[in-house]
Amino acid sequence: MKSIAFILLFALIANFLLPGCSGDEPCRSVAEAPAVQVSWEALSDQLPAVKTKTDLVNFLTAQPEIRDLFFSRAQYPSDSVFINEMFQRFTNPHIDTLLLETQRVFGDEQKLKQEFESAFGRVRGAYPDWPLPKIKTVISGLENDLFVSDTLIIVGLDYYLGEGARYRPNMYSYMQRRHHPGFIVASVMLLLGMDERLNRTNPEDHTVMADMVSYGKAYYFAQQMLPCVSDSVLFGYTPRELEGSRRYEDLIWKRMVEDDVLFSTSHLIKQKYLQERPKTTEVGPECPGRIGTWVGLRIVEKYMEENAGTSLQELMAFPDAAALFKQSKYRPG
Predict the structure, then answer these.
(1) Which of 28, 40, 151, 157 could form a disulfide with 227 if both were Cys (CB 3.0 to 4.6 A apart)?
(2) CA dist 152 to 87, 134, 149, 223, 280, Å?
């Protein structure tokens, strides 16, 4: 009865969230970042311009990283099958509309380039030896969004045209809303925050708490690299969902404790609380998906409040999730 009552309570209070909440937040206070310049290659108009298979082969030969890493040539049974499929995709009459919309949204790409340079300037401020990647932009025909390594980033700009675009990626709407221009650099910073060279973990700890703290550190890292990007953008939550999570954080935590989520090693529990889902229905019908990752961030934020002298580098190198949780004194409500 207690669990049923809890779900009903969450459903009831969700109806009273402020629907007009904008999600706008002031920039976080972070240290000044050194200026950097990234290697930028704008190729978004190249593939829609191919007229013959020879044109396509010439482009892919000149861009083997795009061919092999972004378009995954090795997954095709032969070169001819690969080229035929790519040619059909990029000579589709709709590709011109996709190009025009990409140009409308991203223009000359300088704003996006500056966002990357600002973020990587902050990465270099925290980790002076971290390599600056080459960045290439393309149109993928809505087949791929990002390739990220420590030396190369490839962005499929047409994946990030946002609400109102004529063509959108074929995915659930709650996932689609993260694919907008403001999420490109955020995605890269989150992936970088999960990099095991920065985000140290205990490989023997398979608990939900370990995953929550690891995700929490990655989100905290992204916050520091992107101080003017809101948590709503970072998490892909609507302002309503984010406001509800904040307002009823104590109820979310209570439910996770009641259901013995925190130190479980169950893959099913991890899917329910950490993986992509429209809602975390185990907490309540209005609770957003991946709520365990958001709670992980709240634990990390509380840890940094309780340990004010801790640097970002020290936080990211702290591998013991259980100890970090204990030292955070996180107990909402």
Answers:
(1) 28
(2) 25, 5, 5, 22, 35
pTM assigned to the model: 0.90
Q: What are the b/e assignments for 230-262, b being 16+ CB within 10 Å?
A: bbbbbbbbbbbbbbbbeebbebbbebbeebebb
* 285 shares its domain with 308: yes
Nearest alpha-carbon partner for 195 in 160, 175, 221: 221
Pair 120, 183 in one domain:
yes
Domain boundary among 194, 213, 234: 194
Q: Which of the listed residues 170, 194, 218 is the one where a domain comes to its end?
A: 194
Token pair in block for residue 283: 């907490």
Strand partners, 152: 134
pLDDT in tens, the chain (333 residues): 344 334 434 443 444 333 333 345 678 877 778 899 999 999 999 999 999 999 999 999 999 999 999 999 999 999 999 999 999 999 999 999 999 999 999 999 999 999 999 999 999 999 999 999 999 999 999 999 999 999 999 999 999 999 888 888 988 888 988 999 999 999 999 999 999 999 999 999 999 999 999 999 999 999 999 999 999 999 999 999 999 999 999 999 999 999 999 999 999 999 999 999 999 999 999 999 999 999 999 999 999 999 999 999 999 999 999 999 999 999 998
C-alpha distance from residue 119 to each of 56, 125, 169, 189 (Å): 33, 10, 26, 8
In-domain check, residue 23? no
Cα–Cα distance for residue pair 295/293, rounded to 1 Å: 5
Q: Say if residue 155 is in the same domain as residue 236.
A: no
Phi and psi at residue 219, to the nearest 5°: -70, -40
Give the residue numbers spanning the domain of 319.
Answer: 197-328
Domain assignment of residue 302, yes or no: yes
Sheet holding 39-42, edge to edge: 39-42, 134-138, 152-156, 146-148
What is the total residue count of the chain? 333
Largest CA-CA distance found in the chain, in angstroms, rounded: 68
